[in-house]
Write a structure and sequence with these properties.
- It is a single chain.
- By secondary structure, the chain is mainly alpha-helical.
- 79% of the residues lie in helices and 0% in strands.
- α1 packs antiparallel against α3, α4 packs antiparallel against α8 and α8 packs antiparallel against α9.
- The protein is globular and about 60 Å long.
Length: 246
Amino acid sequence: MRGAGCTINDLWDAPYDASVSRTRSRPLPSGSLTTHQAIGFLGLQMVGGLAVLVSLPHLEYCFWLGVASLPLVGVYPLMKRVMDYPQLVLGLTFNWGAFMGWAATHGSLGGEGWGVVLPLYAGGVAWTLVYDTLYAHQDKEDDAKLGLRSTALTFGEGGTKPVLLACSGAAVASWMLAGYNVGYTGPWYYGGCSLAGAHLVWQIVTADLGDSENLARRFRSNGVVGGLMFGSCVAGNLGNIMLVAQ
């Protein structure tokens, strides 16, 4: 579904991408892919997403929860035309898996579920604001000329780094709260969250907001943040198992 969201984004943005130096070589604006081909590919992605969705346990609950994400998937590419914080809508869209994973495991979001998934979701949204604002700084001059909006333009050169440092702190605090509410008692999970936060701080402090290659490297390095958080969850679960065994 994240891939489908990217395809929808490219379909909506093709006329703009043709006017942006960094994106004019993409398949649709360059003409190497037609709109009909892109729509066909989107259909395949949606079918693939549906196949995953119907394979989940607790199907009825998960099905309607998954369907609830579709309006966000469809409209978030338009937000750069109408609001100053389109990266916020991107975060709300791309982190929906926080709900889906819990629902597939437990059959609902009730009880302790909300105490886990809401901080997890909020942390993911804050993280998205960090990486996609740095990403958006690559295109800020072209976006301004085209009348498009982004948090890069909203925060500006002077405000971006302080705001993103605050978002990083909010992300780490939210992830730690989710871990606490799910029952991680040892230090392993929280240590991993701290390392992920340190990496975000490094990204922001060392980012050159005028250097596209510098920003692209920092954007790609968010795979490290995701890997650290995944490893933290595994370590937290193993730590709990060891504590029970003792």
